[in-house]
Structure prediction request, 193 residues.
Amino acid sequence: MRPAVFLDRDGTINEQMGYINHITRFVMLPRAAAGIRLLNEQSIPVVVVTNQSGLARGYFPESLVGEVHAKMNKELAAAGAHVDGIYFCPHHPEAKEERFRLACDCRKPKIGLFTEAARELDLDLAGSYVVGDRWSDLKAAAACKAKGLLVLSGYGRGDREYIGPHQQIQPVSVAEDLYDAARWIIDDLARVG
Prediction:
């Protein structure tokens, strides 16, 4: 089993726009692809884990999630980068569609998406890293016994200032963006390796 880097999507890889309810609203953050490429060059698996409750709430069709991920993959490939897996939670307890209305084990900060990815891709969760712009990402990291990094893109700056001081769980590092987080992770792996 090998360690991986689990990435939140909205606010970490792409601009945080609330719900991406149209393909044109997916806008890659400036250094996100370069950060993922740094991890790829070190042969570190990169896995996207994202809550997509907008689907459950009826804000967009399921097909749009696939379109957005296809666009993301295409833009990453154009920059010489790739992700090894994409896992998303379509559930919400107040979902408009009954099939999505449940208290699941995959909606972050729960770790169902992480354990599924670890099983399918043979990953060591405890040796891994979770990068995101919300405290729910950091809580998921702690539940996986992984190292959680907060990026200041997306909701990160506000979460750090207004939510973080009241939380028991704290990030192992705070990075300006995904690129800086990737550099920190590579250095940390060299230290512990």
